[in-house]
Amino acid sequence: MLKNKNAWYVSMVDVFVYMVRFGMISWLPIYLLSVKHFTKQEMSVAFLFFEWAAIPSTLLAGWLSDKVFKGRRMPLAMICMALIFFCLLGYWKSDSLFMVTVFAAIVGCLIYVPQFLASVQTMEIVPSFAVGSAVGLRGFMSYIFGASLGTSLFGVMVDNLGWHGGFYLLMGGVICCILFCYLSHRGALELERKRQQAAEEQELALA
């Protein structure tokens, strides 16, 4: 399983998803209170929207990837991460209470979609006997590296470069996530072609 490049691609998708997710969860309250000068009540509302907006998006994501994208998971994940990039920029630059809350809600709505789709992708691109190991690798990479990048490294960046350094880190993480989504998508297409070719060869052999 460790030699399976597709397992590593999808694990790296999760690493950068967790980086952005934990960066927002860990630092959103402090940022809104100290930089945007939200009241505690206003900050709580923005945080609530960030967390609860994920529920409808994950339900919709599975249906969209099945029906619209024909079972291909990563195109939708890439679209979500691209939207997150611009919403992070808006969240960072906007001084409007309403718009900051809206941007936080959209990020919260979309950030769980790539995480959910990465789980589905893992089961589809890894042989059945190695799914458990691949899921374990994803979990290990996500929490050890992804969460650490979003919490500890974000804090180091803020201490040394200011808040803009932290946001550059998150937006860089989004770009890296899109890259690994693309690589994972290519890997899935390659497997799809191989399976189709094997099926055609089997049909010819039986003919």
TrEMBL record:
This protein's membrane topology, according to the annotation, is: Multi-pass membrane protein
What's the domain of life for this entry?
A: Bacteria
Domain spans labelled Major facilitator superfamily (MFS) profile: 1-189
**What are the protein's UniProt keywords?**
Cell membrane, Membrane, Transmembrane, Transmembrane helix
Q: Does the keyword Cell membrane apply?
A: yes
Q: Can you name the source organism?
A: Raoultella terrigena (Klebsiella terrigena)
The entry lists its GO molecular-function terms as: glucose 6-phosphate:phosphate antiporter activity
List where in the cell it is found. Answer: Endomembrane system
Keyword Transmembrane helix recorded: yes
In the record, what lineage is assigned to the organism producing the protein? Answer: Bacteria, Pseudomonadati, Pseudomonadota, Gammaproteobacteria, Enterobacterales
Q: By what name is this protein known?
A: G-3-P permease
A Pfam family of the record is: MFS_1
Q: Which InterPro entries match?
A: MFS, MFS_dom, MFS_trans_sf, OPA_Antiporter
Major location, coarse class? membrane
The UniProt entry's coiled-coil ranges are none
GO BP term, pick one: phosphate ion transmembrane transport
Q: Where are the transmembrane segments?
A: 7-33, 45-64, 76-92, 98-118, 125-145, 165-185
Its GO CC terms are: endomembrane system; plasma membrane
